[in-house]
Every structure is written in C-alpha cells, then in structure tokens.
Design brief:
Elements lengths: L7 E6 L3 E3 L4 E8 L6 E6 L10 E3 L6 E4 L6 E8 L8 E11 L2 E6 L2 E3 L4 E8 L6 E6 L12 E2 L6 E4 L8 E6 L7 E6 L1 E3 L2
Parallel strand pairs: 2-8, 10-17
Antiparallel strand pairs: 1-3, 3-6, 4-5, 4-7, 7-8, 9-11, 11-14, 12-13, 12-15, 15-16
Length: about 190
C-alpha cells in the first residue's frame, strides 16, 4: 500500500501584525513543514520571484524568525519546501502586516505593590510575543533594572504583581522576543497598600 503525503502551509499561528524593527518567532500551520524549508514575504500582489530576505524553518517546531528588516506594509508568504527545492510556492492568502510600533494606553494606569493586577493594552501590533516593565519616569527604559511581564496569549493583557513602589512611573514596552524597550509616555504608578 502506497501513501501520498501532501505538503502545504495553511496559515500562521497567532498574530499576523508585527511591529517594524522587532524580531518575532513565527509558528506555521500546515503539513510537511521541515527544518531548513525557506520562508519569505513579498509585497502583496507581487510574484515569489521578487527578491526578498528569506528565513529557514528551525528544528521540528514549524517556527522561523521573522526578519526585522521588512518595511511597513502588507506582504504575502512564499514558501520553499526543502523536499521540493526548485521554486517558491505562492500563498497569497497568508499575509503579514508590518506596522509602526505604538502603545497608546494601558488600563488601569496604577497598581498596588503585591496585589495582582490585570493590565489591558491598546496600540499597534500588541501581541503575546511582547513584554512590559514599569520604571521611574526619570529613568531609561533599557538601563533601569525592573521585573519584566509578558503579554498573555490573547495579545492585549498582562497579569502582573509589582514588587517596587514607583510613585511617578512610566510603562516601557518591548515588541517581539527581544530588543529594546520603548517609552511611549504612558504614565503608570505603583503604590504601597
């Protein structure tokens, strides 16, 4: 009895909106995905023969690292299976959007030391790949040592328990799995109970 295996990409697991200049691990959905397959994104409506930076699928986890050099816009996926190395296959229905990194608000904008709080974030490209921290307003987001909290899987909520009083503070936000924190002038205070 012979078995035929069909290789295909059915989509991206999670968010498809990413902040420009940030690095994200992206998980693919489909069948026949293998380590060393190539993924690239071309401007939506353009052919896969267009030049674009490609990334290789890592390990057995159907994951690749999205290039941080992609410019603003909407892009369609092109995929090259290692088992069929001649051409990239076009997946025009699988798109990503690269947007301006921006956080516009957090609710609530204060918390009490040692009391669990759920923060709701609003902005562009907020995702479960991101993280926050709160620092004194006169400090640098990237040099001040503070606890870091991850955005939840639903992509706009952070559950935190703050351990330091910060009377006049600010929210610092990092898009993607690593890189610099950004200061969007969002006031956030942590009070003693």
């Amino acid at each position: 009895e012979k078995k035929i295996t069909v290789s295909y990409i059915s989509g991206i697991d999670g968010t498809t909106s990413f902040a420009k200049g940030s690095r994200y691990y992206v998980h693919l959905l489909g069948n026949g995905i293998q380590r060393f397959d190539h993924v690239k994104f071309v401007v939506q409506g353009r052919p896969c023969t267009d030049a674009a930076t490609f990334e290789s699928v890592m390990g057995e986890g159907n994951t690749f690292l999205l290039p941080e050099t992609i410019d603003y816009g909407t892009y369609s996926m092109c995929y090259q299976f290692v088992s069929f190395p001649d051409d990239y296959l076009s997946y025009p229905e699988i798109t990503i959007t690269i947007v301006e990194p921006l956080i516009t608000s957090v609710e609530p904008h204060l918390a009490a030391v040692g009391i669990p709080v759920t923060l709701h974030l609003t902005g562009n490209a907020v995702s479960s790949h991101d993280s926050i921290k709160v620092v004194p307003s006169n400090e640098n987001c990237n040099t001040y040592n503070a606890l870091t909290y991850n955005v939840n899987d639903n992509g706009d909520v952070v559950d935190a328990i703050f351990t330091e009083v910060i009377f006049i503070g600010k929210l610092c936000y990092r898009f993607g799995h690593w890189g610099n924190f950004h200061d969007f002038n969002i006031v956030f205070n942590v009070w003693n109970v």
